[in-house]
Amino acid sequence: MLIILALIWGTSFILIKKGLVVFSSNELGAIRIAIAFLTLSPFAIKHLRQVEPYRWKYLLGSGLLGNLFPAFLFAYAETQLASGLAGVLNSLTALFTLLVGAIFFQQAITWMRMLGIIIGIVGTAILIFSGGDTNMDNTFYGIYIVIATICYGGSVNIIKHRLQGMKPLVMSSMALLTVGPLAIAYMFTTDVVPKLQSTPGAWEAFMYIALLAVFSTAVGLVLFNKLIHMSTTLFASSSTYLIPIVALMWGVLDGEVIHLWHYIGMVIILAGVFIVNRAK
Q1: What letter would DSSP give residue 54?
Q2: What global pTM score does this model have?
């Protein structure tokens, strides 16, 4: 299940890139959340009455931070950033999960884990602000992915501290229920429908986004929550190390140029994540 999850999430970055060939980043984000919501909506409707009223504000928080905001931020970042590098920066989620937990949820944080966070941030700076002949203006788009991983860190902590006891499928479908209608409403204010009607290649790009929504967002979310229930958060977080490898592989196969400094930054980031996950 861990390998399947890494393959699904590692492939998501190249799917975003393919979807952006026709659709804008905002259109892609809206389509992604809308399809993911529709995919899991039957489960949400079935279990609607099982959700205690006090949980809805936390489900909305998880829906916004774990799904809606990152869907738009990743798409916008990849308008200028290589998909492989986006996959590497995604590994910062593990660091920000710990940091957000310490700041907002009174989670204890040791000096060793703080060292891991600092190392990860240093690696991020190297990856974003270095890179041979890469356009420096473009590399700044990596900051949007950093913001997205902070959002992910917030969502994971909400799930861990405020939504315990909910089944993974119920939790995932309800979180999407809180933001899916917003994405659909926004989608119809864009040029998605006209593009599907008249733009060459639009349906192919739409198919890539549909794959992204169904597998990376809907199925991936349920698998990750289930993996945590089956094993431990430490084992589940091991996907952090595999996702960048899959993302870089797809990027290189698609002709993306990855510079030496990018690899150095990636190694430093993963070293920081390793320290955070292993430190007591």
Answers
A1: G
A2: 0.91
Q: What is the pLDDT of residue 133?
A: 45
The amino acid at residue 23 is F
How far is residue 193's CA from residue 52's CA, in Å, rounded to a whole number?
Answer: 37
Could you count the other beta carbons within 10 Å of the beta carbon of residue 63? 24
Distance CA 26, CA 31 (A): 9
Distance of CA 75 to the CA centre of its chain: 10
For 223-248, give one letter per residue: b (16+ CB within 10 A) or e: bbbbbbeeeeeeebbbbbebbbbbbb
The Cα 149–Cα 97 span in angstroms is 8
**DSSP state letter for 256:** -
d(CA 144, CA 98): 19
Picking from 162, 158, 133, 195, the residue whose alpha carbon sits closest to that of residue 52 is 162
Confidence of residue 233 (pLDDT cuts 50, 70, 90): low
Task: Residue 117: name the closest of 154, 150, 142, 144 by CA.
Answer: 150
Say if residues 12 and 212 touch (Cβ distance below 8 Å): yes
Residues in contact with 227: Cβ distance below 8 Å, sequence separation at least 6, in sequence order: 1, 2, 5, 235, 236
Distance of alpha carbon 132 from the chain centroid: 27
Query: Could you read off the pLDDT of 19-58 as tens digits, one per residue?
Result: 999 999 999 999 999 999 999 999 999 999 989 999 999 9
| Beta-carbon-side half-sphere exposure of residue 37 (alpha carbons within 13 Å) | 22
One-character DSSP codes across 1-17 = -HHHHHHHHHHHHHHHH
Per-residue exposure over 82-109, b if at least 16 CB sit within 10 Å of its own CB, e if not = bbbbbbbbbbbbbbbbbbbbbeeeebeb
Largest Cα–Cα distance of the chain, in whole Å?
A: 57
Indicate the SS3 state at residue 24. Answer: coil
